[in-house]
Amino acid sequence: MMNREYLLEDFRDDHPQGATPLRRSILIGTMLGDSHVKKGRGSVKVEQKERDYAQWLFDQLNPFCTHGGVKRTSRLHRQTGVESFAYRFYTRSHFRSLRTIFYDDHATPPRKRVPREIEPYFDEVALAVFIMDDGYKASQTDGALALTLDGYDRLSEGPLLQAMLWNRFQLEPSVQMNGRSRSGRSQWKLYFGADQYDRLHRLISPTISQVPVMATKKLSIVRQAP
């Protein structure tokens, strides 16, 4: 069995230049969020609805990326006929180790997971990128923020993320229901209440403020640190 913690220590398969701790943090954050690694290829697919955020990710990960750059894509919903747009790019095929770390390929079907081994590397940048991917401002309460857990198991991975957030940042989000999918499956979220907002904001704002559209969208209420 491969040592997944060792793979994270030197996370690009061919030990290249450019594999910095900052880029590792960004990859961890977006792999927890919306990005995917295709089995057998080792290429990370990054797709976002916000062009500026997709471009920021591309610029940060540029040494790893293909020459095609960020491309606008469209998709037509089969049932509603509504066309949606996103911005996508791919890395080169250097990240088979991330497939090993972030996926359970023995499950049927294979599924994404929250790996315990990321905890030592789950820093403020990784948290900020995870929130830019899957977080949103909870409208019902000023200063609250939620982070969707779609695709993750509530009973195992919800508590694992809670433990990592406490161990790393002394944050205590609750796991709450977040509606149902089109298929009727229950969906869940991590909820950061207003009492934790100031601390969360101090941790993630240095990264999120680099993408103004995401700072407005994710952290619409900005409080001054004491």
From TrEMBL:
Protein's name in the database = Putative LAGLIDADG homing endonuclease
Q: Does the keyword Transferase apply?
A: no
Q: Is Hydrolase included in the keywords of this UniProt record?
A: yes
Enumerate the GO terms in the molecular function aspect.
endonuclease activity
Traced from the root, the source organism's taxonomic lineage reads:
Eukaryota, Viridiplantae, Chlorophyta, core chlorophytes, Trebouxiophyceae
Q: From the record, what ranges are coiled-coil?
A: none
UniProt cross-references to InterPro entries, sorted A to Z: Homing_endonucl (IPR027434), LAGLIDADG_dom (IPR004860)
Q: Provide this UniProt record's keywords sorted from A to Z.
A: Chloroplast, Endonuclease, Hydrolase, Nuclease, Plastid
What residues does the Homing endonuclease LAGLIDADG domain cover? 24-197
